[in-house]
Every structure is written in structure tokens, then in C-alpha cells.
Amino acid sequence: MQSSLRFFTKFRQSCSVAFRFLRSQRKESYKHFKKIQYPVFPVLAFQPFATVHALSFGFGKKEEVKEKELTKEELIIIEADKIYTANEILKLYDFLTQYKDCKNDEILWRLARAASDKGKLVQNTNEKKACFFEAFEYVKKALELNDNNFASHKWYAILLDYTAEYEGTKKNFKCLSCEGTFKESQ
Fold first, then answer.
1. Is position 82 within any domain?
2. How many domains does the chain have?
3. What is residue 161's predicted lDDT score, i.e. its pLDDT?
4. Which residues cross the membrane (predicted)?
5. pTM for the model
6. What is the DSSP string of 114-142?
7. Which end of the chain has the smaller Cβ count within 10 Å, N or C?
8. In a domain, 11, yes or no
């Protein structure tokens, strides 16, 4: 029994020494380890040799790419969106008021949004009220021109709420009967 006990203690000691040695070697080996990058697909390892170049000798029909020329109204909308993205509200309002008599619903709802944002900036309540009612008129005109524009319906609902704050609760209850407008804006 004592001989087996001595054997197990010697074995345990030698294992712990070996384990410490291996652990120290592993730490040393990680210091010198360099990450080797292999290609994800082995086929791509030979990419220069597998590359196929397509040559054209001018045969076949060449399609001419015609760029669509933008209309004046589309350019106005693009410029207005750039100004709005830059968060220059007063500049946007001044830019779009030039086109308040146009017959484009996209420009008119953007003008209503700009007038509404201007109203939010103004401190004077009379000017704020005037801006909201002006915006409400623009969005009503946009809805008359195109009843299928979701943005016009959205701003109509928003401005209906803003104007109802000034006109009282009776106007608010009348607004609730406009369920068709809210369904259209979704």
C-alpha cells in the first residue's frame, strides 16, 4: 500500500511539473504566433490564373444611355429637400414661397411643412398662428390638386391639429369626423 501511495504522489508531482512546463511553453508559443490568412475559398487562391477577361471587338448593338432630363419642378423639389436636410428652415420657407401659386402638390406640401416649421420657431403667438393657418391653406390646396399624395394627407392631419389648438375644442371634435383623411395618410 505504501509503495502504491509513493507511486501516486510521485506521479502527481511529475504530472504537475509537466503541466507547468507545457503551460509555459504554450505561452511562449503564442508570443511568436503569426496569424496566417488563408483564402475563404480555395479556388480563389489561384485567382490570377482563373480570371477570364471578356473582350469586345465592337460587334453587337451599342445602347445609348439617355439621361432623363429633370423638369423645373423636379429641380425645385430636389433643392428644397437639400435645404430641408441642412435644417435651414427660414431659407427653405423663403425659397418655396416663390412657388406658392404653382400647380404641383409636391411643392405645396413641402411649402406647408416649411411654414409649419417656421411657425414652431417663431416666439410671437400671433405670428405662430398665422404661419400655421398659412401652412394649412397650402396643404388644402395640395390635396385639391392630388388626393392620392400620402404626404399631403399627413401634413393635413398635423396642421389640422395645430389649427384646432387656436380654434378651440369644437373644431377638434369636427376634426375627428375626418377619418377618411387619417386613413389616406397611412
1. yes
2. 1
3. 86
4. none
5. 0.58
6. HHHHHHHH--SHHHHHHHHHHHHHHHHHH
7. N
8. no
Residue that has been written with the C-alpha cell 417663431 in this structure: 122
- Residue 65's pLDDT band (cuts 50, 70, 90): very low
Report the C-alpha gap between 155 and 140 in whole angstroms: 9
Report yes or no: 145 and 108 within 8 Å, Cβ to Cβ: yes
HSE of 135, CA atoms in CB hemisphere, 13 A: 31
Residue type, 97: T
Residue 177: pLDDT band with limits 50, 70, 90: very low
Contact yes or no for 107/77 (Cβ under 8 A): yes
Per the domain annotation, does 33 fall within a domain? no
Query: Domain limits at 162?
Result: 72-184
Q: Where are the alpha helices (DSSP H) in the chain?
A: 2-31, 47-50, 72-85, 89-96, 105-121, 125-145, 150-167, 169-175, 179-184
